Amino acid sequence: MSKYTIAWLPGDGIGNDVMDATRIVLDAMKLDAEYVHGDIGWEFWRTEGDAFPQRTVDLLKRVNAAMFGAITSKPVKAAETELVPELRGKGLIYRSPIVRMRQLFDLYICLRPCKAYAGNPLNLKEGIDLTVFRENTEDLYAGVEFNPVPQELADVLAKVSKPFGAFKDNALDQYAISCKVNTKKGSSRIVRAAFEFARAHGRKKVTIVHKANVVRATDGMFLDEAKKVAADFPEIQFDEANVDAICMWLLKNPFNYDVLVAPNLYGDIISDLAAQMVGGLGFGCSGNIGQKLAVFEPSHGSAPKYAGQNKVNPIATILAAKMMLDWLGETEKGAQLERATAAVITEGRVRTYDMGGSSTTTQMAEAIAAHL
Ligand code: NAI
Ligand code: MG
Hints:
By secondary structure, the chain is of the alpha/beta class. The protein has helices at residues 14-29, 42-48, 54-61, 76-81, 97-104, 151-160, 162-165, 184-200, 216-230, 243-252, 264-277, 315-327, 331-347, 361-370, and strands spanning 4-11, 33-37, 65-70, 109-115, 129-135, 145-146, 177-178, 205-210, 237-242, 259-262, 285-289, 294-298. It contains 14 helices and 12 strands.
């Protein structure tokens, strides 16, 4: 029996290219693991009406961790037209498997390290090293949405909100509502995770990202909870910033920031911004982390136009595997993998197209494996 069982979920498009490449590296590391394939993605929505079939949910219940490539998703209406004829009209609703996975397994931490590896031609500046903690289960991604708005809800809203005062029965489809749902528990635990990370890794500062001056109820609560948690970590500097302002400040003065923590939507946005500062989609890696399970993935999608071409950069996924090794407690192996990746970036002999080179996905993985 292997020490670890890892669910292996390549998904769609280049998810397959980058996951194959990552296996080259993990196999070279001789991690004592069994990798079990799981079905996920567009193909399974199209053929079965479920992009995250129950058998894959069950697989995730019995593994130590999972690696996930990427999936294709389409707007709901487009999605329905592509369903197999027998499934049409069955009232199936397409929901993002990754959002569902995060909620089902309470993967409340989305961890996104954004580090500028020396010599990467895509670095905005050398030396950037930011870590984003994004709340991963609630906020605007809670899935509480209405379009059209039900009459009962319209009646309540008409009493409290001027735009909704104009509600008439026949106007309900003129309104759409997505609820931003935040809890004290959800706010507090993501901030605590960020501070604990800062303490464990000798980081100096945690910045809370919010818009509490305008979005008072939800972001106000997030900020209040953050302040309470910060009091338990007096040795770490506590800072706060509005989400709009920080998009400017991050670009202007990236060295003023260290660990950032934000509610779901803001975290999604600032982590893409931070990833672009250190190389873009080919470098952005992400961990969806809960108490029992963690799922690691590149931040990019399935890039259908490059699918199967052995062309895209596998580094984001390889760095996601590094995060998985750390989470499993294999920190020496994690460090070894990061050093090998950094060495290949710095040498600059093997570069995929996004870095200005012409190496293949496989060649990049083999170069990293050779440096282990
Ligand atoms: P995308 O991230 O798939 O690709 C956008 C562009 O970024 C690509 O055309 C390519 O130029 C570049 N790119 C992406 N990954 C790269 C890599 N590893 N190396 C080099 N260049 C890379 O985003 P897009 O085109 O908006 O979405 C395509 C599909 O992916 C959609 O169906 C979308 O819903 C889905 N998606 C899935 C995600 C996930 O599975 N977590 C996340 C984002 C999008
Ligand atoms: Mg995103």
